[in-house]
Design a protein that fits this description.
Largest sheet: 2 strands, antiparallel
Distance between the termini: 55 Å
Number of helices: 19
Radius of gyration: 21 Å
Structural class: mainly alpha
Shape: globular
Order of helices and strands: HHHHEHHHHEEHHHHEHHHHHHH
């Protein structure tokens, strides 16, 4: 362990790393309930059982690469927001099959692997306006919150006002509200695994309300279902729509990963004096391999999890933390009936809580400069109101370029941003 992970050099021990891995697992294990429920709702052969298996195996692959290649205490799994974009925008919104969506994710993973070796990801990150990066996180947070409210029945469609408050006395809405209160109280009390514990208690509360349905002869243990191996459809590979989908996966994953890496390594005291992230190329490589493997197995984009911060707070400093988390994920592989028992009303509060965590980036946006604030505003409100992460990015980039040109601040526009705006305008015209 010492030779592999340099424990003494990083001021940690085996027991501390294992405890940190357990803490990280408790804070992010909600994805084992949320991801199968979300992607499994697509149907057409994409079952919750298959997604559950794919989620675990892809996460483990990503974490093992992160542990051995980058030696960082960062866990990976299919990203919240990216799975929502996959399900509700690409498949249910744009009408693509999930096989085409998986093809886009796979292409993203392969491109990421290539870009990781040539440091292009870092260059691309620098080219995109900082305020738009923050706005993307905020917009996705609101989008996820809206999905959680809709899935639980707290928010419903209304012909007159578009959306309205649902029947809060219904079993589903009441269960979700109970869960949200439990999660927020646990979170405020800084209880490790607040989201996961909240999901478990909410699931139990849903039994008397008729929301959680326990099948006859229920057993929490079972052999894992087979994942959806290599279910790709590249028939639209050369279309502009496919490029928009592909780029959105690429764009969101880049900034999600960079933000997580900066945040976690800073918290762990691993950032170098010049501000450089240690072994950042290897960390990006782990993210890329996890994404490509996840697509091949049948799940959405795998990315670094900000919940890894809980493990770092518990003392995690090396890749041994990631391995400990991966081991617990593997044990969960045989508990699929238990995780799949969790109803949407119990995972809805988790979506809302993740939305709260993501929306905090709004304080970093410069609203005093209208050429920065207005594009960020467009990015934020278009995501939930257009029910599309992609459209938020499209309108944000276009608005940014137009306002910078109109105000004479041409130097603020990078070549990459300008080219993207032209591509997005052509996409809107040809749509």
């Amino acid at each position: 362990m010492e030779k592999l992970f340099k424990l003494k050099e990083n001021g940690t021990t085996v027991s501390r790393e294992i405890a940190a891995g357990l803490t990280t697992f408790l804070t992010m294990a909600y994805i084992l309930a949320v991801n199968p429920g979300m992607l499994g709702s697509i149907g057409d052969g994409m079952t919750p059982e298959a997604v559950f298996t794919a989620t675990i195996i892809a996460s483990v692959i990503g974490m093992l690469v992160m542990a051995f290649a980058a030696n960082l205490p960062i866990a990976l799994a299919p990203g919240m927001g990216l799975n929502a974009f996959f399900t509700y925008t690409v498949v249910l919104g744009m009408g693509y099959s999930w096989r085409i969506a998986l093809a886009a994710v796979f292409c993203e993973g392969i491109v990421f692997i290539i870009l990781s070796f040539f440091n292009v990801r870092e260059a691309l990150v620098k080219a995109i306006p900082a305020n738009l990066k923050y706005a993307v996180a905020v917009g996705i947070g609101l989008f996820i919150t809206m999905i959680g409210l809709g899935n639980s029945g707290v928010m419903v469609r209304d012909e007159a006002t578009f959306v309205a408050l649902g029947d809060l006395t219904s079993g589903s809405a009441l269960t979700a509200l109970i869960g949200f209160v439990i999660m927020t109280v646990l979170y405020v009390r800084k209880v490790p695994g607040a989201i996961l514990i909240g999901i478990i208690i909410t699931t139990l509360a849903g039994i008397p309300l008729g929301v959680t349905v326990i099948p006859q002869n229920f057993s929490p243990l079972s052999l894992p279902a087979a994942p959806l191996l290599f279910q790709f459809d590249f028939s639209t590979l050369l279309s502009l729509k496919f490029f928009t989908v592909f780029f959105t996966f690429l764009f969101v994953d880049i900034f999600d990963t960079v933000g997580t890496l900066v945040g976690i390594t800073t918290q762990a005291g691993l950032i170098k004096k010049d501000g450089e992230i240690p072994r950042v190329k290897q960390a990006f490589f782990a993210d890329a391999v996890g994404t490509a493997a996840g697509a091949a197995l049948g799940t959405s984009t795998v990315t670094s999890y900000i919940e890894s911060a809980s493990g770092v707070a518990a003392g995690g400093r090396t890749g041994l933390t990631a391995i400990s988390t991966a081991a617990l994920f593997m044990l969960s592989l045989f508990l699929s009936p238990l995780f799949l028992l969790i109803p949407g009303a119990a995972t809805a509060p988790a979506l809302i809580m993740v939305g709260f965590l993501m929306i905090q980036s709004v304080v970093n946006i410069n609203f005093k400069d209208p050429t920065e604030g207005i594009p960020a505003f467009f990015t934020i409100f278009m995501m939930p109101f257009a029910y599309s992460v992609a459209q938020g990015i499209v309108f944000g980039v276009i608005t940014y370029v137009v306002l910078k040109l109109a105000s004479g601040k041409i130097k603020d526009i990078s070549l990459v941003t300008f080219i993207l705006s032209l591509i997005f305008i052509i996409q809107i015209i040809l749509k």
